[in-house]
Amino acid sequence: MLNKIHHVAIICSDYQRSKSFYVETLGLKVIKETYRKERNSYKLDLRIGETEQIELFSFQGTPERPSYPEARGLRHLAFEVNDIDSVKKSLEDKEIIVEPIRVDELTGKKYTFFQDPDGLPLELYES
C-alpha cells in the first residue's frame, strides 16, 4: 500500500538560521524556495539522497516543541551515513554539539544524536 516516505515537514522559528543549518551545515540541496505572502511564510523544499525530501516551513508564533520529558508523536529524524565518525567530526568542526557515538544493541550499528537550531533531535545512523 505505501511505497516510501516522500518527505518530512519541519516548522522552524527562525527561517534564515534553519535554512543555513540544513543547506550549509548539513549540505542538503535546495529544490525550491517559496514565499507565501498571504501567510508571511516560507516553504523550502530540500533534497536528501536521490529522492527523499525535507520541507522546511516558517510560521509566525509557533509554540516550542516539547522534548524533555519526551512527548508523544514523532521522536526524531534519522539520517543514514556511511562513516559516522567523519560526519560527527565534520559537524563538530562547524560547532555543532554531537553526543558520543553509541552502538545499537539490536543491530550492532553506530548512531548518535545532535539538534537543529530549534532543538529538534536529529540522529546519524551508520549504514
Describe, in plain words, how this protein is organized in 3D.
There is one protein chain. The chain has 127 residues and is an alpha/beta fold. The chain folds into two domains: 1-61, 2,3-Dihydroxybiphenyl 1,2-Dioxygenase, domain 1; 75-127, 2,3-Dihydroxybiphenyl 1,2-Dioxygenase, domain 1 (Roll). 17% of the residues lie in helices and 38% in strands. The chain is built from two helices and eight strands; from the N terminus they run E-H-E-E-E-E-H-E-E-E. The chain has helices spanning 15-25, 84-93; strands at 7-12, 29-36, 41-48, 52-58, 77-81, 102-103, 110-115, 121-126. A four-stranded mixed sheet has the order 1-4-3-2, with helices on one face. It has a four-stranded mixed sheet with strand order 5-8-7-6, covered by helices on one side. The protein starts with 6 loop residues before the first strand and ends with a strand. The mean pLDDT is 93. Pfam families: Glyoxalase. This is Glyoxylase I family protein. GO terms for molecular function: metal ion binding.
